[in-house]
Amino acid sequence: MKVMIIGCGRVGSVLANRLDEAGHQVVVLDRNQHAFRRLSEKFSGERIVGNGLLDEFVRPTLGKKTDLLFAITDKDNINLTIAQRVKRNFKLDRVVAVVHDSILAGLYKELGLETVCPTDLVIKDLLQKI
Amino acid sequence: MYIIIVGAGKVGYHLGRLLMTQGHEVMLIEKDRAKVNLLSLDFHEAIMEGDGSTVEVLREAGTNRADVVVAATGNDEDNLVTCQITKLVFFKPRTIARVNNPRNEELFTGLGVDASVSGTKLINAIIEEQVKAGDMMIPLLTLKAGDVEIVEVVLSRASHIVKKKIKDLTLPSGSIFIAVIRGEEVIIPYGDTEFQPEDKVIALVKRTSEQALREML
User: Fold this and answer.
1) A contact test, residue of B84, B90, B107, B113 with most A CBs within 10 A
2) Which of A37, B55, B100, B200 has the fewest CB neighbours in a 10 Å radius?
3) What's the per-residue H, E or C state across B101-129?
4) ipTM of this predicted structure
5) What is the CATH code for A2-128?
6) pLDDT for position B135
7) CATH number given to B134-216
8) B111/A78 Cβ within 8 A
């Protein structure tokens, strides 16, 4: 699979490493070059320094067939905007946005966007420990 | 009307004040506590601290009874989310978004924003309109609280007055030519002065005659 990951933070970097190890074609974008230090030495995918909200930085990747895009920056609104932008402007099979605010995550799911809410996952996990 | 403005930067602040003087009920929502404290001297109860792109804060601001929500921050992604959740959760208010990157305008309207305003596009439209009019009238000096202006116009080749003498022209009442600048030369115009393309014409004009003079040139 060809996968684009926007945001190379704690989650994005690990996801990138794993997908790369599993043999997928991975492209990681972050606006900060320094963020790529989190990628493993063996990481063989592509690194792009740029703004995921702007077409010029994502078009070189998404202009060609891409299976999946993850929007995983630390800002909910940026992830939601990126996800909606790329869904409109490019042909992609799936787009997943990480949204920390659980109300927002629910609302955009109703709008038909695929969201993952870390807050909900943590709460679920904590409740299971009771 | 009850109008909620998200973002108390320059745009939000001045918009809020303007709407209040027009008698509207206004609520400004601002993330930055220092800004809220500073502006509360001016806005009193009409400003609150919070992230206006969350349902909780919008609910607290009374969005369910608002007529309009204006998302006026400098971040397009925040403005988009504010407008979208307003539509999804509170239904009633019209949503207006400030668009900072003009390329987002089409995206916004496709995603449930009722109206978007792009500063860049507005200024560009005004410039285009001026250029289309054939000449740009540049105000040099405003006198008597704006009633009278001294303006500068560079004559285009297509101008109606090129190759004509002043004595053959009927100037709109309330306007007079003060000087014609041709290259390095300054001409104090009289009846026999003939206009040429690229002449810079300086005129004194009453505000009420400005349009007529613009059309003539």
Assistant:
1) B84
2) A37
3) CHHHHHHHHHCCCCEEEEHHHHHHHHHHH
4) 0.89
5) 3.40.50.720
6) 54
7) 3.30.70.1450
8) no
